[in-house]
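Cross-posted from the bioinformatics board.
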Amino acid sequence: MEYRIGVDIGGTKIAAGLVNEEKEIVLKKSVPTRAGENYSLVVSDIADLIQDILDESHLQAADLSGIGIGCAGASDKESGIVLFSNNLGWRDVPLVPELKKRFDVPIHIDNDANAAALGEVLAGSAKGSRSCVMITLGTGVGGGIILDGKVYDGVNHAGGEVGHTVIVSGGEMCTCGRRGCFEAYASTTALIRMAKKAATAHPESRLYQIWQENGDLNGIGIFTAYHENDQTAKDAVAEYLFYVAEGVTNLVNIFQPEKIVIGGGICAQGDVILEPVRRQLAQDVFCKEVSLPDVVQATLGNDAGIIGAAYV
Amino acid sequence: MEYRIGVDIGGTKIAAGLVNEEKEIVLKKSVPTRAGENYSLVVSDIADLIQDILDESHLQAADLSGIGIGCAGASDKESGIVLFSNNLGWRDVPLVPELKKRFDVPIHIDNDANAAALGEVLAGSAKGSRSCVMITLGTGVGGGIILDGKVYDGVNHAGGEVGHTVIVSGGEMCTCGRRGCFEAYASTTALIRMAKKAATAHPESRLYQIWQENGDLNGIGIFTAYHENDQTAKDAVAEYLFYVAEGVTNLVNIFQPEKIVIGGGICAQGDVILEPVRRQLAQDVFCKEVSLPDVVQATLGNDAGIIGAAYV
């Protein structure tokens, strides 16, 4: 059996797993990310995590076919240097060279969203697809693009930033500095903004009541009201999904992929999310007469990032 | 010397050329497109055009390495069938199988915008680039995507429709049925709409005067006023270029290509078009700290479609 280790470096957590050639995680461990601290501490945490996995599996580094890293931001695949990562506060961090001092195996690196998309293609909801665009709806909107079975990330390894494509020119401010990005309309942050606005206009609504009871409003509260048939919640979710579908339609018109994979915590809502997106695609896609891609829910959750990282 | 013939089928004109291995057109001929008539007439026109080129060059079909077709719409590359082409009014036209009855050489087909982009990569302003996105600003907005030296057009050969990505959700109606597409803001049609609106609000402007004198307003009139320093024309062009740059920034954030090539008649304005786009990119691109693509003017004009078609 061939083994690899995949490491998913997020802003709050570093997760690593031993992945077998069936693309299954056979052992998984994680530690909190010491974001903002000196990068050498984080590198040391990653190395210790990898060593722990090797020790518990009674493996040596030499037994691995490779180690792969999925890291938020942009990394130079050749040099293994993280060029920048806003989540980690990193600029030009020699992550792979440092790890190579500890582990004498091939070590590769790519963007975490790309790794997650590759994970879904290798072992998840897009298994067997040659082309797939994955969007992850979370605090932001991440994107991973798989073309011809491989991650596409552009000449500078910073491509696939589908969250930072403007769909409402002059609209809501985005974290990237532009106005009206897909992320500013399709992130859960955006859903909460739309729901709060709708609830404020309808203080009689169940949505408003939940907001007041909990002191704040989050995705769980919004979908609780939604499933209790609260019209205000339904309207807010419909508004949100219109923009999700608007951005997804753009991506279909550009890529015409086999599959669109939707990930992030919100995708647990399944067809509540997927059906309106599918309907809007069927109406709006440019060459709908020829074909429409499958729109599916990501199935691997956080494991996608680990499995994909192992194979970047 | 190796020769190929490239054919560019547009809505108004069919242009074909004999292309040598230096990617130069050594002989070029064209005929009007009999759009809307029975497709067999158009196929016959194309075959005659190819035969004329062979005859004038004292070549036989067997001397060609291949024939390539760039055709508006979506075609199945494997079967050579044009699945649909709105410009030609075609559905499921067996173009390549019909041409093969006349010429016993390999015949390939792709979208005309993709062929033009490939032409610019092979012999024009993006020569030597591995990745390039070309947008053609005309009556509509065409897009051609070259990744790793090859045309990318998705699982159904209808990808790269970058003109039909919404940048102003709920905005101006687009020919595709959506509202707010890049095409509805970055085509010359859109520029004329913006200029007419600006001129109507400023009847004292030179722009308005040119419109009235000519009975209508076109790109030439708008840029005449622009170069005469008419503020109304300058404002309209600035508004238009903001949207051009908005869409180009989206494409850069998705693809991070080496080059962005801007084609279409309007690109003859050179830096008047390119500089504002470059400035907005330098401000708005997601990872501008890492790199920015070159934004260049297409240099081959209509020849790009012929040269690229020869090599699809």
